[in-house]
Amino acid sequence: MANSPSGDSMTQRIVRVLDTFTTERTLQTATDIARRTGLPISSAHRIVGELVSEGLLERDEEGRIRLGMRLWELALRGSSALRLRQAALPHMERVQAQIREHTQLAVLEHEEALFLERLSDPDAGANITRIAGRLPLHASSSGLVLLAHADPEVRERVLAAPLRAVSPETVTDAVTLRSLLASIRRRGYVVAPGSIEAVSTGVAVPVRAHGEVVAALSVVLPRETAPTPETAPTPAINALIGAARAIELDLRELH
Ligand code: PHB
Description:
- The protein has helices at 10-19, 30-37, 41-53, 69-76, 80-99, 141-148, 152-160, 174-187, 235-254; strands at 57-59, 65-67, 102-109, 112-119, 134-136, 190-193, 200-209, 212-222.
- By secondary structure, the chain is α+β, with helices and mostly antiparallel strands.
- The chain has two domains: 10-74, Arc Repressor Mutant, subunit A, CATH 1.10.10.10; 80-254, 2-Layer Sandwich (Beta-Lactamase), CATH 3.30.450.
- 33% of the residues are buried.
């Protein structure tokens, strides 16, 4: 593959263009994309044009660019994330109907929690999670469950890196975090009050396939109605544990 003067391959340049899109920045001008990639303007414009003509990017009426439907279609084809989401959805709906707050499914992806699904009641409390959005492993309840069960190598890397405080209550001390992760493995769930925002408590449990943790199932509750880390299992924790078991059974039948 031909390399640019900067040494990037064509594939790397395409990825740089696609990577300028985030859950918050979904529509951009070609000029903004070019600036954000740091690629030469003409080269960025050419790549954007080619991706538009292949349907991987789309142009709206005002000429602004968004990710294309074709990219979505290709990404979902045969995707293990989609299989997991499909197995989880009926059970997430039951949790959602019972708890009436936010119910979410996340997987470990490049040392972050990536959210595959989120169901929300119209009257549910605050929640910053977005489908296809990410949260730090050490800060979100889903992330904590995924980190507790991650490969020891991944866990050590995360624990060794600076742990950013998302809120004043995020656990950023590696020693405290290590013992929290051990307690998550022991108890089978986590209750994380105020770790992302002061007003919410995340509660999460692991979902296993073939004995390995493949996802975290969570609810985000208003702080005042949520269990505390010390409380014995509550309706939310029981609903999550029951749903995780049911997803595990369904996943077994899918294989
Ligand atoms: C959590 O998973 O702990 C969590 C996620 C999103 C929020 C609050 C808490 O807005």
